[in-house]
Write a structure and sequence with these properties.
Blueprint (H helix, E strand, L loop, with lengths): L4 E10 L2 E10 L4 E5 L6 H9 L6 E6 L2 E2 L10 E4 L11 H11 L8 H11 L14 H14 L4 E5 L7 H18 L2 E6 L2 H7 L2 E6 L2 E6 L1 H6 L4 H6 L5 E6 L3 E4 L2 E4 L6 E6 L6 E16 L4 E6 L4 E6 L8 E5 L6 E4 L1
Parallel strand pairs: 3-8, 3-9, 6-7, 7-8
Antiparallel strand pairs: 1-2, 1-4, 4-5, 9-10, 11-14, 12-13, 14-19, 15-16, 15-18, 16-17
Helix pairs in contact: 2-4, 3-4
Length: 335
C-alpha cells in the first residue's frame, strides 16, 4: 500500500527561521500528531502541505502525486487553521457550502455530502446562525465540517482545540479521534501539549527548531527517546548523568551491560511509573510527595541523584525508603 503523504527533504525559509530537510511518511488512515514547542515549525510545515507557503527545496507527495507546486485547491487536503478563518457574518451553512463550491473535486450535487457532514458533526441546531454568534466549540465543528466538505485525502488540523476552554478539550479530542476512525481519513494534528497528543495519536512526530527530532509510536518516544530534548519534552523527570566504562554502567544497585555501549558519558532515563518504593534497591529519603490527577509523585534523594516515583499513596517528607530501578527499563542517550 502506498503512502497517503510523503515529504522528502522539505526546506523553507521565513525570515530568520529555517525548516531544515524534513522527511516524513504518513500511512493511509493514520492519525499522526505533529508535536513540539511553540515556534518549532509545526504550523509552517502544515502551511507548506496545504499550499499556503512555497518550499525552497524538497518535494511533497499526496496519494503518490507530486503536489509540491500545485495550487491549494488541487492538493485534496482539508485544512482547519488555528483561528478557523470562517466568515463571521455568514451563517454556518453558508460556510459549509462555500467549501464545496471551491473544491475542484466536486461534480454536480453536493446535498448527500452536506447532509452527511451535518449529521456527523451535530451541526443541525445552529446551521442558520451567523458564525460570530457561535461558541468556540461550535465554531470548531463548523471549521471541521467545512474541511470535510471538500472531500480531502488528508485532513490537516492546526492546534484544533487550543481556542477551546480546557473543560471542552478532552471531549473534543475524543470526538476527533472517533470521527477520524469512522471516516478512515489520514489526519495530521498539530499541537504542543503532550496529553492532547497522546489522547489521539497513532504516531507522534516531534519537532524542534525546524527539524524532525523523532518519529514513532507514543510508547517509543516515552520509553526510548532519541535524546535529552525528547525525554524532557515527554515529561521524564528522571534524567541522570552516568558514565559507561567497558560496556557497563551502574545506576544505584542496577548494572546495565551491553556490547553496543561505547565508553563515554550518557544520560540515563527511566520513567517514574517504572520505579517502585519499599523494595530492595537504593536507599533514599523522601523530599516531597505530591498528589496529581494521575498518581502520587514522590521525589526521593538517593545521594547520587534524585528520583521521581509514581506511587499510590502520599509519604511524609524525611521518610527513609528504598528505590528499585529495573535495569531493563533504563534507557541511555548520548550526552
Amino acid at each position: 500500500m502506498g503512502k497517503a503523504l510523503r515529504i522528502e527533504n522539505l526546506t523553507a525559509t521565513l525570515g530568520d527561521f529555517r525548516l531544515s530537510s524534513v522527511s516524513l511518511d504518513v500511512n493511509p488512515g493514520e492519525y499522526l500528531v505533529l508535536l513540539g514547542p511553540s515556534g518549532c515549525g509545526k504550523t509552517t510545515l502544515i502551511e507548506l502541505l496545504c499550499g499556503l507557503r512555497k518550499p525552497t527545496g524538497g518535494r511533497i507527495f499526496i496519494g503518490g502525486i507530486d503536489v509540491t507546486h500545485a495550487d491549494p485547491a488541487d492538493r485534496h487536503t482539508g485544512y482547519v487553521p488555528q483561528d478557523y478563518q470562517l466568515f463571521p457574518s455568514r451563517t454556518a451553512v453558508w460556510n459549509l457550502r462555500f467549501a464545496a463550491r471551491l473544491s475542484r473535486r466536486y461534480q454536480g450535487n453536493t446535498e448527500d455530502r452536506f447532509a452527511s457532514v451535518v449529521k456527523m458533526l451535530h451541526l443541525e441546531p445552529f446551521l442558520s446562525q451567523p458564525v460570530q454568534t457561535l461558541s468556540g466549540g461550535e465554531k470548531q465543528r463548523v471549521a471541521l465540517g467545512r474541511a470535510l466538505m471538500a472531500m480531502p485525502d488528508v485532513l490537516l488540523l492546526d492546534e484544533p482545540v487550543s481556542a477551546l476552554p480546557e473543560s471542552l478539550r478532552d471531549r473534543v479530542c475524543r470526538e476527533l479521534k472517533e470521527l477520524q476512525r469512522e471516516l478512515r481519513i489520514t489526519t495530521i494534528h498539530v499541537c504542543h501539549n503532550l496529553d492532547e497528543a497522546l489522547s489521539v495519536a497513532d504516531r507522534l512526530a516531534l519537532m524542534d527548531v525546524g527539524r524532525l527530532v523523532q518519529t514513532g509510536p507514543p510508547d517509543q518516544l516515552l520509553d526510548r527517546p532519541a535524546n535529552r530534548f525528547v525525554a524532557e519534552f515527554t515529561h521524564c523527570k528522571n534524567l541522570w548523568r552516568v558514565e559507561v566504562v567497558d560496556g557497563k554502567v551502574r545506576l544505584g544497585t542496577s548494572e546495565i551491560a551491553s556490547t553496543e555501549l561505547q565508553n563515554g558519558r550518557y544520560w540515563a532515563m527511566v520513567r517514574p511509573e517504572y520505579l517502585s518504593l519499599d523494595s530492595d534497591g537504593v536507599a533514599g529519603r523522601v523530599v516531597e510527595s505530591t498528589r496529581t490527577p494521575y498518581a502520587v509523585l514522590t521525589r526521593v534523594d538517593m545521594g547520587m541523584c534524585e528520583a521521581s516515583i509514581a506511587d499510590d499513596r502520599v509519604r511524609d517528607t524525611g521518610d527513609n525508603v528504598w528505590v528499585a530501578i529495573p535495569a531493563e527499563r533504563v534507557h541511555l542517550v548520548a550526552e
